[in-house]
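User: Okay, second chain of the day. Same drill as before: sequence in, structure tokens out.
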Amino acid sequence: MATTPITLNRHLNYSALPLHEPGGAQYRALVERMRRSLADVGCAVVNNILTPAGVAALVDEADRVAPNAHHSYNRTNPYFTADDNTLEPTHPKRRFYDRTNAFVPADNFATGGPLRGIHDAPGFDRFIQECLQVEPFHRYADPLADVIINQATEGPGFPWHFDTNDYTVTLAIQNAEGGGQFEYAPAIRTPHEENFDEVRRVLDGQSDRVRTLDLQPGDLQLFLGRHSLHRVAPLTGRRPRYVGIFSYVDQPNMVASPERCKQLYGRVLPIHYQQAGQRADVLLD
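Assistant: Same drill. Structure tokens below.
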């Protein structure tokens, strides 16, 4: 019996990301390369997964919804913890940096649109899971956060930090005019050893463990950020940097807490209160 061919997404470069042939030699070789890179340095990249028309379509979509981004500003250390004055002033936990976030919530991206179309492309989720080798594996069910764009403009970028989640899946859409390189020190800490001395050397610009990636529009990145210190270098110029973020979790029907949604996206939906077992009027301003 003939297999029905999948419908190809016109924005995807299938020669770089052969989702249409999951049993083929090119696909299997790509998965193995991604797995090796994740095991070796906690980071793996597929270059040019978008066609030129795909890059242009995603930039147009990002420009259109950019005014809907929620901006937040704070000072944070690499661990997202409060200051601890029992530690010496130069301790990594006492190094605080300006951090600016701007996220365009997921409900700005229509089904069938450029960004959500990449996420919904047949085989995309399977490819991500096969590379990460994680189980269970579910799409994030949060209607504000399953597929978002991070927007960054001229300034300090994203300072050195560890992620609170095990992995991230991102797609470079547009670079700033200058700066914005992704810098990381792979596996600089473990679940059993924080390695503060080496973290301090990274923060002081004295470590030889830092790697630099100059990601280009259309590059898909998988990154294990819980144990790898990383940052986005300072940005210059008027052109914003756009990065798409695809979110996956280990539980079905999972959404963010109302407090987290308010912080990141500036608003909360009824489902967030329902999942948290709270009344909507408790957290409304």
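The chain has eight helices and 15 strands.

User: Thanks, on to the next one.
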